[in-house]
Amino acid sequence: MSNLNNRKSSRSFNRRQFLKSSSGVALFIGVSGLLPTVVSCRDQKRVEEQFQKHEVTAWVQISEDGQITIYNPAAEMGQGSMTALPIIFAEEMDADWSKVNVEFSPQEAEIYGGEGWAPGTKLMFTVGSRTTNSYYSTLRRAGAQARYVLLSSAAAHWNVPIEELITIEGNVVHEASNQKIEYGQLVRFLTMPESIPDFNEGGLKDPKDFRLIGSIIPRTEIPEKVNGSAQFAIDIRLPEMIYGVLERGNLHGAKPTLQNEEEILAMDGVLKLVPFDYGIGIVATTLEGALSAKKALKIEWSDAQASGFNSQEIYASYEDILAEDKTGDVRNEIGDFNKASSSATKTYEADFKNDYVYHAQMEPLNAIVQVSEDLKKAEVWVGSQQGSDTKLGIPSLLGIGHEDVTVHLQYLGGGFGRRSMSDFVVECGTLAKEMAPRPVKLLWTREDDVTYGCYRPLTLQRLKACTDSQGNLTGFSHVVVGDGGHLVAGGARNDHYQITNQWLEWRSASHGVRLKHWRAVGHGPNKFAIEAMLDEIAYEQGQDPIALRRKLMTNQSPRALATLEKAAEMADWDAFLPENRAKGVAFVEHGSMGTGICEISVNRETGKIRVHKFWIALDAGVVVQPDNVKAQMEGGIIMGMSSVLSEQLTVVDGKIQQSNYHDYKLLRMQDVPDSIETEILPSAEHPEGVGETATPMVAGAIANAFLRLTGKRLRHIPFTPERVLEVLNT
């Protein structure tokens, strides 16, 4: 595997090459503190010894010319982690950002894992809008420790008390003697202090003194993405690399029986056929040859659990599940909803539905795996959102240790939850094991991913609400029917609304269709149902939707209320609108809190809804990159609009009916809003995620605007023109 070890990244050089080509130092700063070593890059023997011992523990490297390399532990899929996380470290280190380079860290969760998951668990998992939230404190402490080493070394060099020293943008300064030294110049004098503060109880910067955090700083990877030099996994070519594809069919779980094996093996370039429980793998010398062989496969497929399942007919069965006299999985219970309902002046009830949705990430799923000839080591090149296993299932597949697998993380061309799975990596590893030691690149075509992907679940939600004689909301019941547990039941709590009696329940239904987290997971359908239900109550009462939410938030969540008031101000909520225009509002909490308001029109002849404007007020705690947060909001709104107005994946007799973008319709450029405006509310609270806050507010805001405009209710997403016309004509 020597060809792999000598390979140089087109994006930046690796750590060992950095050390060999510079006269810098590596500060071995891990999440548990600073290891007792500062390694000079001039001492090559000691460098090698230290890297053999501590190769995965360095957060930062400094060279004598002042260049600083900071390691990013998270996936970069367009959300800006390659800049946001290093900024946090650099802020506390007081680094000169113009001299900072960023590289991916090794995939070693014990060292680089983020906090904020299960107690005592560290994961490298770029999902759930948790990246900045889980690394914020860790990277601040590590950056402060790096700064302390620099201060301590300067104090020893100048023979002055460390308390008399300060740092200013990449320099240590002793004002009393008018001395200043750049970090790079200090490299040759670096020494390890006897003890280093852990900075858990203080000693970090006051947020008012932040120089980098909260500033508009260009993202580090954007120039490469603009000029085409950015490297994604799909770009990688290795010596002697061969190609793999799988035929999986479109009936999930069906088992294949190949009818023409000899014919396929005789095709030009085909090297091997590898059977899977659910498909047939092909390895060939070229991708074209593999795809040609795939088209020529003659397969007899078995039945599966999904056989006979029809997604558009299943809602009647879900209604039967709701009618059953039994209780499902209770997810939240406050007060006594039944008691509140029995004494209510008025009760409201409505069913809300959503169809399956596909991830539609831009870069097709792909990976490269090379297994050593003795099957004892492996290397992986992949764009992944990582996971509970940072080595992505390869150690278990090969029966080897985690330390024997090296993962080279690449940029991702979109994830949205799909690349938090490692199924495609394990498939590639299975093929590579058969072809060792040649590297194998596996590619999923778009058709593969549409027909055998993993989707946001289909659900039916029954909501009931009750009010007293003054119209106050006294009870709220939410029962979700669908497959996937948290995938369908998540995001259905009402923690920011003051409702005395609440009931949240999930009732299971399974059809054998592959499911996975999709941007914002259960929040999309559930927040849609909750926010639409609130507007239906307000409409029936002749009450303003903003006023209703204001009443529910005032004593419950001042921060949520602040986003509501700011959004109403931004959108000029009470302003006169032209005929055939209306505004709708929705509040969402997904880590951060946000209120969104949209302005729509409806073509009553075609049934097409047009979103003209969208306003968002966001409270995300401390915001590391404000400009990037606004970009996240814009992307989330557009993706939400696509899923709400266009995207629909259907199943007939267990088989996925769509295959590519000609029949799985995405939002087009001409349909995006004229403007999307985001206001970030100032906050000193711990940072919260923003990548999944905007998407779930879209359906509720559009449905609520539609209700104000037409007096009609949209309760089944997507709001296709056909469904809109059906509602308008009833």
From TrEMBL:
InterPro entries: Ald_Oxase/Xan_DH_a/b (IPR000674), Ald_Oxase/Xan_DH_a/b_sf (IPR036856), AldOxase/xan_DH_MoCoBD1 (IPR008274), AldOxase/xan_DH_MoCoBD2 (IPR046867), AldOxase/xan_DH_Mopterin-bd_sf (IPR037165), N-heterocyclic_Hydroxylase (IPR052516), OxRdtase_Mopterin-bd_su_IorB (IPR012368), TAT_signal (IPR006311). SMART domains: Ald_Xan_dh_C. Residues 227-305 form the Aldehyde oxidase/xanthine dehydrogenase a/b hammerhead domain. Gene3D superfamilies: Aldehyde oxidase/xanthine dehydrogenase, a/b hammerhead, Aldehyde oxidase/xanthine dehydrogenase, molybdopterin binding domain. It holds the Pfam family MoCoBD_1. This is Xanthine dehydrogenase family protein molybdopterin-binding subunit. It comes from Croceivirga thetidis. The lineage of its organism: Bacteria, Pseudomonadati, Bacteroidota, Flavobacteriia, Flavobacteriales.
